[in-house]
């Protein structure tokens, strides 16, 4: 029975890692559409979103079944609740990649603004946080989870910087307002991807330490002074 | 044993409703600071946030305990997983009220823009969705849950309208860019409050029908055409 349970647990982790890899790819591809106008990625991102959504439903049901069937001990039960939480975060994180894609898609039909390298940097940080948070979660690695929490500040600092830059841009050349506004919102989408990775890191600590480190202050610093 | 379980279930519901009422008040108070410059609400919102965070931790632990202690049947187990999901949504929804407050607080020190009635309308819709989604959840009322899902479109339509209005404003008078940008972001915060209420409505359907209605397309319509 325990061996059966452990095999199912390994299977849950495998599926979480697969979802996370899909979401990471979605972020990278949405940025390719945004930054390099690679239209061919648009249908790929949408297809991966479907896959993530299906995986999320399956994982929720798998969690319920495992609890009902195996009546796991306190520690395993906490881990399965952690899987359900992480599952929800991954699905919403993937939604943010789609939100970026939607903006990238409408910017395709407009003259390009100057490239904003900070957005690509933000995407790289967010993807790294995602990858590390999942690794921390499935391996119950609290040290790695705490390292993810710290990276969130890097993301927030860049979000504030690009928001100030874009506001200056809009002020100087009002014809850019609509396009620059879309980029402000992309920066927010990337910030939210980081928030979900942070949640997943916190789920790790919730599972391992049986206590809660959530509710560190959310950075919401002035974008324009 | 069943009677004991039912009493604990009633207690879970009571605490969820209390969290939800706190979050509703936080939204109303943050809007008072934003729209009517009522500074005296600032410490109240922050205090309620602490309370929501404490409640969230307690509820997660209560869910774990109930499962471990009572080994509930499939239906009750699904409901408790629904409580854990709804709990997470309520806490993040309250964070959005704090994000609105942070912007309202920095706008206090700047000359007012014209009043944007749509923001107050959006807040009223979002609060109504929150209240109804919780009512639907604790009463397992699928019809009411579906009504909440439909209201999300009202919120999204207003978000798009105010974003277009504010973009026009920024284009005509570049000195308003920084302040108008904050209001665009407030509209996004209100939209996210509606998203969380939608999630809670979907949790209701997940619990009652044992299947999943999530992943209806997320509205992310063009803000500026």
CATH class of chain A: Mainly Alpha
| Derived structural class of chain A | mainly alpha
What would you call the shape of chain A?
A: elongated
Count of discrete alpha- or pi-helical segments spanning 4 or more residues of chain A? 6
The whole-number mean of residue pLDDT values of chain A reads 92
- Please estimate the helix content of chain A: over 70%
Counting structural domains of chain A, the number is 1
Describe the structure.
- The structure is a homodimer of 225-residue chains.
- Chain A is mostly helical.
- Chain A has a single domain (2-209), classed as Up-down Bundle (Methane Monooxygenase Hydroxylase, Chain G, domain 1).
- In chain A, 82% of the residues lie in helices and 0% in strands.
- Chain A has helices at 2-36, 42-70, 74-107, 117-138, 142-172, 177-209.
- The longest helix of chain A has 35 residues, at 2-36.
- The radius of gyration of chain A is 19 Å and the shape is elongated.
- The N and C termini of chain A lie far apart (60 Å).
- Chains A and B meet through α2, α3, α5 and α6 of A and α2, α3, α5 and α6 of B.
């Amino acid at each position: 029975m325990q061996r059966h349970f452990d095999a199912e647990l390994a299977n849950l982790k495998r599926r979480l890692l697969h979802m996370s890899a899909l979401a990471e790819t979605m972020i990278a591809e949405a940025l390719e559409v945004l930054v390099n106008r690679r239209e061919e990625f648009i249908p790929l991102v949408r297809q991966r979103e479907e896959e993530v959504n299906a995986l999320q439903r399956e994982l929720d049901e798998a969690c319920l079944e495992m609890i009902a069937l195996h009546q796991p001990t306190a520690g395993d039960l906490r881990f399965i609740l952690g899987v359900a939480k992480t599952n929800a975060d991954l699905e919403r994180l993937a939604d943010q990649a789609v939100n970026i894609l939607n903006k990238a898609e409408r910017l395709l039909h407009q003259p390009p603004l100057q490239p904003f390298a900070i957005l690509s940097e933000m995407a790289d940080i967010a993807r790294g946080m995602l990858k590390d948070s999942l690794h921390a979660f499935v391996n119950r690695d609290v040290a790695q989870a705490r390292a993810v929490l710290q990276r969130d500040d890097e993301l927030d600092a860049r979000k504030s910087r690009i928001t100030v830059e874009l506001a200056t841009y809009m002020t100087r050349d009002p014809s850019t307002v609509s396009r620059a506004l879309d980029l402000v919102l992309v920066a927010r989408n990337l910030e939210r991807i980081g928030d979900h990775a942070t949640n997943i890191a916190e789920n790790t600590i919730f599972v391992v330490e049986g206590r809660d480190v959530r509710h560190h202050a959310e950075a919401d610093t002035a974008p324009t002074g």
